[in-house]
Amino acid sequence: MQLSESEAVVKHTILSISSLFESSEGKSVAPYTERFALQHYTQAIQRLKTIHSEPLVLLVCILFICVEYLLANNKIALQHCQHGLAIMEKCSNPWARRYLMPVFRRMTAVPMLFGPEDIESESMPALTYMIPTKFYCMEDAQYMMDDIFNRVVRLCHMRHRGVVFDMTEEYNTVGTHLQTWQTLFERLTVDTTSLLYQAQERSLFMRLKLSYLELSADFRHEEHMGTFRQVLQLASWQSERSAKPSSFELAYTPMLFFTILKCPDLSIRLPAVRLMKKLGSPTEGICENLQMLTTSRGIIQQEHGVEIVDIDS
Question: Phi first, then psi: what are they for 298, rounded to 5°?
């Protein structure tokens, strides 16, 4: 928000996102709201052409992705994502690598989760990740799990599209990384009594369980109902807290959406979509939350004939 005061391109984009989000939430807004949002977005695009700062370009790229998701332009959002990943991979700016790299790392999974069917996941740039020898804080554990979960989502998407490739090597790599992650996490020294740690731990172990599930040979959902229920239980514990999670890193929505994609059982899908609504937070990724929630409702209606009028009921 401080940047919006000094950088006009950021200000215009944030105004556009704010207006579009109000419309998407079903709030009572003026009829010209979308036109207002598009005008500011157009001005932001024009101003971007004059920017030479890589970190600022990367930040604006993230904001542009949000705008396009709110406009339901998934393919254009994907183009922004690919462009940003290419810049991010070569960027050496310390601030960008510390604060923007984690965001881009998480964003690589988003198009493969609910983007168009023809997304070529094998051509999506993968950000380089160096496995640490030790976790010094929870963020270290989160960054490594981000990389692992992105690999898992990529594998799932490629298999769904029927891409022919030798999966053995990648599956073995992911399996080894999961074992390494567990070993490093067990040695991590942190305050395990803090509520933030407990929330982060649940989020991490949800991804851990889903990642192992994806690596299962000859996957049959009925053989893994216990794992799906454990994932829902981990999310339910978090939802019982009085406040919504305020950290983007928790990212419950993508994991619950992944659960809905993997398990066709309605007894799992309905609680998952309700938890998506309850745990979703504007600070956790407003665009992804809205798109995944809408897509989940559509899946349940199409495959089960159940129209969710009141998602909380």
Answer: -65, -40
